[in-house]
Write a structure and sequence with these properties.
Elements lengths: L1 H20 L15 H12 L3 H13 L6 E6 L3 H12 L3 E6 L7 H9 L5 E2 L6 H12 L5 E4 L3 H8 L10 E4 L2 H12 L7 E3 L4 H24 L7 E5 L3 H12 L3 E5 L3 H9 L3 E2 L2 H7 L2 E4 L9 H4 L6 E5 L9 H7 E8 L2 E6 L4 E5 L5 H4 L6 H21 L7 E3 L2 H14 L9 H8 L6
Parallel strand pairs: 1-2, 1-4, 2-3, 4-5, 5-6, 6-15, 7-8, 7-10, 8-9, 10-11, 11-14
Antiparallel strand pairs: 12-13, 13-14
Helix pairs in contact: 1-6, 2-4, 2-5, 3-4, 3-16, 4-16, 6-7, 9-10, 9-16, 16-17
Length: 444
Amino acid sequence: MSSKKENAGSTRKNIKDKMATTTATPVASDVKNLELAEQGKRRIEWANQSMPVLQSIRKDFIKNQPLKGMRIAACLHVTTETANLMITLRDGGADVVLCASNPLSTQDDVAASLVRDYGIPTFAIKGEDNDSYYAHIMSALDHKPHITMDDGADLVSVALTKRKDVMDNVIAGTEETTTGVIRLRAMAKAGELKYPIIAVNDALTKHMFDNRYGTGQSTIDGVIRCTNVLLAGSKFVIAGYGWCGRGLASRAKGMGADVIVTEIEPTKALEAVMDGFRVMSMEEAAKIGDVFVTVTGNKNVLAKQHFEIMKNGAIVANSGHFNVEIDIPALDKLSSSKRITREFVEEYSMKDGRKIYLLGEGRLINLAAAEGHPASVMDMSFANQALSVDYLVKNHKTLDKKVFPVPQDLDKRVAKLKLEAMGIKIDRLTSEQEEYLASWSEGT
């Protein structure tokens, strides 16, 4: 354990040395290559065109400066969409620093542009090792944030365990993912959560769209990019039928796959059946599946007993936040050798001659091998983030140290702004209809 701490400390020292010798920009950072910035800037601008709701909030933030004086540390996937959120927060008066929430999800050109073109300190390199990943989180916490912004709750966890020195400054935070919300609610239940956090993931305009349509499309994109496999006619096994699983199943079916769902929750399993999918245990699915994708938020969903009975050539991927959903150590033990066959594809040769292919090191394949969710759906998710931060700055003193939902009026505001941006008008209740819905006197 001590050697790991020493390695992390050494990595952080290297980062600080690099910061001290960077002459191209005065902004503290650790990114792959600042020369990638021009490409990153073009891509950030391209994404911005599909984020009209966030654009609207940014204009309001520029005018009213609601985040003036606030220091924000964000641990998020460093993508073009995230860049536009960071710019919005900065333009609202916040002093922002960003680090990656996953070692494989960073877009290096975007990280470079955030530093060079937008003056936002960024600590993220695609493919960074574990020590660098946590050193980057430490660098973000060196910012002594008032607000934490998380995607998986690693920033909060490190702050509460290894960086208690920053806790006096923190007033509130937000969390973007299902996995992170689960961790934070466990912290709150154990009495370990020290400040209020808004679960952005639970907003209707987040999980009903980002999780379903975003994860569905981007996961298929990631699997196809790194394998070029034909989904039509394949048996596509999805572990978990939450909002992410629903979206993925719909998209895989649309590509012609024979979709199989595995579940532990009876109601969700029944819903999958009613939606037209085959439902079975993973023990059964493992024998016949061609492509497996986990989206559960739990660990060892694909385990030793499943690898032992998979077909030769089975493809295994994860689109949940952490790579624990696939028991990779068990896969290592069962194999006689492994090699990289394509970018983000590891071929495991089993001792009985079968081959199993693991994608993206078992990390979220939609960001490891593809670009993550389309900007138009992240527009709503990040609008919720921005509005939630604004809400927390104004209301943190009245909130308990718990996990809270996005206030309903903010959620509806995001939906309304999205519809307006799409040029769609909806009906309104008449006074007679409002009176009818509020009364009980009228019957048959």
